[in-house]
Design goal:
Elements: E1 7-12, H1 20-33, E2 37-41, H2 44-50, E3 53-55, H3 83-95, E4 100-105, H4 107-119, E5 124-128, H5 144-165, E6 168-173, H6 180-189, E7 193-195, H7 203-215, E8 221-226, H8 234-244, E9 250-254, H9 266-284, E10 290-295, E11 298-303, H10 304-309, H11 316-326
Parallel strand pairs: 1-2, 1-4, 4-5, 5-10, 6-8, 6-9, 7-8
Antiparallel strand pairs: 2-3, 10-11
Helix pairs in contact: 1-9, 2-3, 5-6, 6-11
Bound molecules: 6-O-phosphono-beta-D-fructofuranose.
6-O-phosphono-beta-D-fructofuranose (F6P) binds next to loops.
Length: 327
Amino acid sequence: MMRQINRIGVFTSGGDAPGMNAAIRAIFRRANHYDLHIYAIQRGFEGMIDGDIRRLEDDDVRNIIHHGGTFIRTARSQRFLESAGRKTAYENLKAFDIDAMVAIGGNGTFTGCQIFSEEYDIPTIGIPGTIDNDLFGSDFTLGFDTAVNTAVEAVDKIRDTADSHNRLFIIEVMGRHSGYIALYTALASGASAFVIPEDSTDIDKLVLQLQQAQRRKKLFSLIISAEGNKIGDAFSLSQQIKNLMPEQDIRVTVIGHLQRGGAPTAADRILAARLGHASVDALMEGQRNVMAGIVNDELCFTPFKESVTLSKQPSNEMIELTRMLGM
Ligand code: F6P
């Protein structure tokens, strides 16, 4: 028998990502359609444990579609890893009569949701919200497109100064253990080379590539490095290259949290609209403990367990294409 849903708790958790606000707006508007009430669980699992929960009104979701960050705040929660924390969280949800949830976040968020679903009975739908694009079950995650656009804008600017000085720049982007941001940034900014965890480039191959470029009279080079790559952070890469190519004038730029802020791109707002809308419909149709995603432009749902344990990697085609065009 399908259960009655009246109040949906919504939360954002883990690193914020552009498009989270647009998703909350879509959830709220779709819930309105069914006469459901939306409650914001502020600061993710932390707010769930502290009972930091409030009802959202029309005004809360007006004029937010274009804002980065998350107006209901986010956090990385250590306390939710403890069963005592989860018990308190459940009691708070019950106190607010919350009978279903939509969780917007990444790997850590859905791992938390999975554990919670094994202990307590509150149907939850996930929306992939992380700039890292590392979740199985959706071709893209909220914030990824914006982060790549931000990184590309930064690389375009670095290109000007790299060109003027004939320098080699190593530009480090985020992504945790995933190379998606680095690879897409490298392709879109026409970088000479990239270093990502999913590819087997080592320092010798990288240096060979740079020497080939030099022989073709390429006077400056841009290398995009994923923070999670296996051969070292941007500063270590710089030192390793300098050891083998002492003539190179090398500079390092770590783009850092700049990539997490700013107005979401149209692609991220549209993804947020589709997934926010779908998450409420999914709850109404009796789905539970799955992540909503878009694969090949089709809406699909993946159990939390699979979304966090199965790996998603950039295709070989994308890797080879980026390498080929960077030469
Ligand atoms: O998961 C998103 C992300 O921005 C990663 O790319 C990065 O490694 C991490 O979060 C940084 O986390 P924090 O903001 O907690 O330093």
